[in-house]
Amino acid sequence: MNPQPSTAAGTAHDEAVDQARDEIVRVGTSLFARGYVHASAGNISARVGDHHLITPTDAALGFLEPGRLALVDARGEQLAGDRASKTLTLHRRICAADPTARFVVHTHSTHLVALTLAGVWSAADVLPPLTPYYVMKVGHVPLIPYHRPGDPRVADLVTALIADRAASRTPIRAVLLDRLGPVVWGPDAATALAVLEELEETARLWLLTGRRPEPLPHHALDELRSTFNAAW
């Protein structure tokens, strides 16, 4: 029989898992209440040590139950809860590719899905740098070509982009899945939500203005880089 972790270590881990469960439920409720998610579309995960918590497959994010969240180990094997979301591989691979990623959110946010249907600005940047806060809080967001929900090939594409952008010192915090919506990540829930909200609202602005506004000029982008260390 494998030795059990010390009581103190085990208790600390259990407490961290419980806190992550509560945070995922809180985020799901907030996203649903504000119209960022609907029905059973989307998923949320949190990394806790070598483990991951993720919403179950087909779960309604506005009505999550802490005890039913799926807990998986370092190998991706399920330890507790309902069956994990079909996007588990993508969430785990993002956290492995970006050491700062501890909280991952995928939604089918209306304006971002609409953007993929109407046509993004470019495959490398789904939206132009329209506002200073989009540049500072979101940064570059590439488009991932359509694949069926849960297709493991998406994880290969996303992790390759994370590595390429990190090498060019313009790290990404989000991608947009064609016809499926955004995937965003950050070191905690608040950071990931800030990216999601700014991204969705900028998509709404661009669509509401008929996709006519020009991007910020180069001198404005240079100023944001020099003043706020914006990664653009």
TrEMBL record:
<dbReference type="GO" id="GO:0016829">
    <property type="term" value="F:lyase activity"/>
</dbReference>
<keyword id="KW-0479">Metal-binding</keyword>
<dbReference type="InterPro" id="IPR036409">
    <property type="entry name" value="Aldolase_II/adducin_N_sf"/>
</dbReference>
<dbReference type="InterPro" id="IPR001303">
    <property type="entry name" value="Aldolase_II/adducin_N"/>
</dbReference>
<protein>
    <submittedName>
        <fullName>Aldolase</fullName>
        <ecNumber>4.1.2.-</ecNumber>
    </submittedName>
</protein>
<dbReference type="Pfam" id="PF00596">
    <property type="entry name" value="Aldolase_II"/>
</dbReference>
<keyword id="KW-0456">Lyase</keyword>
<dbReference type="InterPro" id="IPR050197">
    <property type="entry name" value="Aldolase_class_II_sugar_metab"/>
</dbReference>
<feature type="domain" description="Class II aldolase/adducin N-terminal">
    <location>
        <begin position="22"/>
        <end position="207"/>
    </location>
</feature>
